[in-house]
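Let us work through a complete example step by step.
Step 1: write down the sequence.
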Amino acid sequence: MNYDTAIDIMQKKQSLGVKPGLSSVSSLLSKMGNPQEKVKIIHIAGTNGKGTVANLIANALADCGLKTGLFTSPWVVDYREQIQINGAFIPKERFSEYVAEYENEPVTEFELLTAVMYKYFADEKVDYAVVECGMGGALDATNAFTHPELAVITSVSMDHTAFLGNSVKEIAAQKAGIIKNNSVCILYPNPECEEVFERRCADTGSRIIKIPPQSDFKKNNIAVAKECIAYLRRCARVEYPSLPARQEMFGGIMLDGAHNENGARALLNNLPPEHITAVISMMADKDCNAYLKIIAPRCRKIITTETSNPRTLAAQNLAEIAGRYCNSVTYEKNPHKALELAKKENMFILVCGSFFLARDIRKDLI
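Step 2: predict the structure and record it as tokens.
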């Protein structure tokens, strides 16, 4: 099987949607020989910042000379960026071999991707696997293993409410599911739901290490990563990574994939003072109003658009929401055309609201 065929198989599995639960992925992992039990896992859950914290930890461990696996999602530049060892993407040939062997298993795209990740890391005998949850925690496919080296919780806020709950505490309870018996949890400052994690640690006989609040989210993320490295008794630099679609700059264009209220606040604090034209797309299952209430008033003009993802909110519907907070809002379904329209405004351009939009637009900017 060649790589293009493997990617096509993965994309076709997207039609199976999202299916929280561990039975299917556990069955597949069992057929693989339970590779997830053969690696030391640093498991990371949260709403915002988990990809950044995962990269911070993985980079630091690699700097220590350790063979370090990193699993994050979603992808922006290359599908294989989701599975890396010391910064190198899984080779196309290896990825294709794994997909060919297990393509007929009745699992979703994310479940197969997760299983491939654990198999690859076990086969390569990594020293640590830094694994970011896809969604939630307790029922996330990545959670199908016995015991973590560390359970790490980043910033928790409202997101994926259809699956995780209708309050921050309900969502926190799902994410607390990565804390297992007699484990250690390192907790980002989460004053709204801290007691949820304290209770989970008490119930599981686990130790909790709470990070004191810093002055902003970046410093909080770094503090979490540093505590993880210190707990593992490693000494390494922890430097903020430059990641695709995380306030990423291309000249006068900023690309940001954050899509919830906390992500919007973090973005707002890092926008330039000049006038902004924004190209925005969001998924229909997100709290678009909460996001736009923060970002839209900062924009002189907004062009809403769509992506190829079936969950995308219709551009016209998104424009109606954005119009509550910005006086100049239009829509253009094609994201590439929307970017060209934004360029004609001769302002700073912000492309935001979705990693799927960032994935589409980034190709136009390189």
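Step 3: interpret the result. The mean pLDDT is 94.
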